[in-house]
Amino acid sequence: MYETPDSVRMTDLSDRFRYWTGVSGRRYLFSTVTIADLRDFADAVVLISTGENRDTQAGRVWVGETDCEGNLTGPQMKPREGSAFVHLLSTHGIERRSIVEDLAATKI
């Protein structure tokens, strides 16, 4: 599930940040970026929504990571289009993989 933080909704930044909720109920703050810019974000959790409404979890969602060089790693499908979101607040690989697993387990 996705939602915009209340503090962001009251500003002009509502299209910039999103919370995505994992199966555990934990919410993770993501920044909206373009797929082309993902290479600029090393060691990040990445979520790409390719559904009809790309700003929500409706439709197909790819969840993975970027490695230390900004390359996408994770499930086989690596979307080339859609809405991209990066979570930059996890500093260790184990934590990132835990977040990926939590988000990937969410029913979409």
Which residue ranges are poorly predicted, with pLDDT under 50 across at least 5 consecutive positions? none
Shape: globular
What characterizes the major β-sheet? Answer: 7 strands, antiparallel
> What is the CA-CA span between the terminal residues?
8 Å
Q: What's the tally of helices?
A: 2
Q: Which class best fits the helix and strand makeup?
A: alpha+beta
Q: Which range does the strand content fall in?
A: 25-35%
Order of helices and strands: EHEEEEEEH
Question: Which sequence of strands runs across the widest sheet?
Answer: 1-2-3-7-4-5-6
Helix content: 10-25%
Number of strands: 7
Instruction: Return the average pLDDT rounded to an integer.
Output: 81
**Whole-angstrom Rg:** 13 Å
Note down, in words, how this protein is organized.
By secondary structure, the chain is of the alpha+beta class. Helices cover 15% and strands 30% of the residues. The chain has helices at 6-9, 93-104; strands spanning 2-3, 17-21, 27-33, 45-49, 61-66, 72-73, 83-87. Strands 1-2-3-7-4-5-6 form a 7-stranded antiparallel sheet, with helices on one face. The protein is globular. The termini are close together. The mean pLDDT is 81.
